[in-house]
């Protein structure tokens, strides 16, 4: 592992794509969401987002550790924890304010209810306290509380993943297997109502860390077992797609996503393996170089996530519901395109304002995560 290596262009590209997909997925009347991962798999962009978060966290920890030492690396992630918590509060406030405006103007009633504003009005002090202590998360802010927890654990998980990857993986798997009883143990009213059970979803985060610290070697990928793994992954991805398209056509129970069911994990791992193969082949780097705007979104992840929640809500509200058929489809598609452009512009504005970051580079064969 080389802590001095530049940023991975592939990881920034993947993060950018996923952030855009998250915005599109949260426009209920959108058209492009029907082409996203969740339409063809039992997992969705959430798994990719969390796994890439683990990878990026391990990379950031290693960079600070090599330059400033262990104490600085620990402090960086304690600070990061506070940054994510502030982003969570901002997202919650924006969500509630949006709900208040929608209710006041009598617009998009379903979205107003989703924001949690009606419940907040009934008991503002209690709701504000519950939001502050992470007991309840308004709508799109729900993914951030578990990131607060993950940021705290990075200084402990990353060194363990470096020294004893098998131990780190085993501990993560055991925690995932016991996620539901652990949630109940830590107060059922507090944890089990989270949209993402952190005891389950830490598995995706740890997988990301392990991918950074202990990558699959080129030799194994090119070996006979490696090629068999690739064939199995292709078969699994196609099989899950058939199941999702033709068998499980109705929305699946929410607890499967909340507690990161085993079929979601398997489906994601198959997709992730194929992504590694494409990265090693240089395919993703070629795509990334042709989409620098998407890379900027990936480099401004927290900002684009918070801004994206507002963008998706505004676009959904602005899409007319009084029209039907082809006209409605075209209007919804136009809304999707507006949302994509808005996210790209937000990333560009933020990057220009904050200044340049560490230079990017395509991941080499020995560095592909």
Automatic annotation (TrEMBL):
<feature type="transmembrane region" description="Helical">
    <location>
        <begin position="232"/>
        <end position="252"/>
    </location>
</feature>
<feature type="transmembrane region" description="Helical">
    <location>
        <begin position="12"/>
        <end position="31"/>
    </location>
</feature>
<feature type="transmembrane region" description="Helical">
    <location>
        <begin position="327"/>
        <end position="350"/>
    </location>
</feature>
<dbReference type="Pfam" id="PF10129">
    <property type="entry name" value="OpgC_C"/>
</dbReference>
<feature type="transmembrane region" description="Helical">
    <location>
        <begin position="168"/>
        <end position="188"/>
    </location>
</feature>
<dbReference type="InterPro" id="IPR014550">
    <property type="entry name" value="UCP028704_OpgC"/>
</dbReference>
<feature type="transmembrane region" description="Helical">
    <location>
        <begin position="194"/>
        <end position="211"/>
    </location>
</feature>
<feature type="transmembrane region" description="Helical">
    <location>
        <begin position="85"/>
        <end position="105"/>
    </location>
</feature>
<feature type="transmembrane region" description="Helical">
    <location>
        <begin position="37"/>
        <end position="64"/>
    </location>
</feature>
<feature type="transmembrane region" description="Helical">
    <location>
        <begin position="144"/>
        <end position="161"/>
    </location>
</feature>
<feature type="transmembrane region" description="Helical">
    <location>
        <begin position="293"/>
        <end position="315"/>
    </location>
</feature>
<keyword id="KW-0812">Transmembrane</keyword>
<keyword id="KW-1133">Transmembrane helix</keyword>
<protein>
    <recommendedName>
        <fullName>OpgC protein</fullName>
    </recommendedName>
</protein>
<feature type="transmembrane region" description="Helical">
    <location>
        <begin position="264"/>
        <end position="281"/>
    </location>
</feature>
<keyword id="KW-0472">Membrane</keyword>
């Amino acid at each position: 592992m080389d802590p001095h290596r530049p940023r991975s262009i592939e990881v920034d590209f993947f993060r950018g794509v996923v952030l855009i997909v998250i915005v599109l997925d949260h426009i209920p009347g959108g058209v492009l969401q029907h082409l996203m991962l969740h339409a063809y798999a039992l997992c969705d962009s959430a798994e990719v987002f969390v796994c890439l978060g683990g990878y990026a966290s391990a990379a950031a920890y290693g960079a600070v550790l090599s330059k400033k030492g262990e104490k600085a690396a620990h402090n960086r992630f304690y600070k990061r924890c506070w940054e994510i918590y502030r982003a969570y509060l901002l997202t919650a406030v924006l969500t509630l304010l949006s709900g208040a405006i929608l209710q006041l103007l009598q617009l998009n009633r379903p979205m107003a209810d989703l924001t949690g504003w009606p419940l907040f009005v009934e008991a503002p002090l209690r709701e504000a306290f519950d939001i502050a202590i992470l007991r309840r998360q308004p709508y799109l802010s729900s993914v951030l509380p578990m990131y607060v927890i993950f940021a705290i654990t990075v200084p402990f998980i990353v060194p363990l993943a470096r020294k004893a990857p098998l131990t780190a993986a085993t501990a993560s798997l055991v925690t995932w297997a016991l996620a539901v009883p652990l949630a109940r143990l830590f107060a059922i009213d507090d944890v089990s109502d989270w949209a993402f059970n952190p005891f389950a979803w830490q598995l995706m985060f740890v997988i990301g860390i392990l991918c950074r610290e202990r990558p699959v070697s080129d030799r194994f990928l090119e070996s006979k077992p490696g090629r068999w793994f690739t064939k199995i992954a292709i078969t699994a991805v196609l099989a899950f797609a058939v199941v999702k398209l033709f068998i499980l056509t109705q929305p699946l129970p929410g607890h499967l996503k909340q507690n990161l069911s085993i079929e979601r994990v398997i489906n994601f791992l198959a997709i992730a393996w194929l992504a590694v193969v494409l990265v090693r082949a240089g395919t993703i780097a070629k795509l990334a170089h042709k989409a620098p705007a998407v890379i900027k979104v990936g480099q401004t992840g927290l900002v684009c996530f918070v801004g994206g929640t507002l963008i998706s809500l505004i676009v959904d509200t602005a899409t007319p519901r009084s029209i039907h058929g082809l006209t409605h489809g075209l209007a919804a598609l136009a809304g999707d395109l507006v949302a994509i452009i808005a996210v790209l512009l937000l990333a560009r504005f933020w990057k220009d304002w904050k200044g340049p970051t560490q230079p990017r580079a395509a991941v080499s064969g020995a560095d592909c995560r």
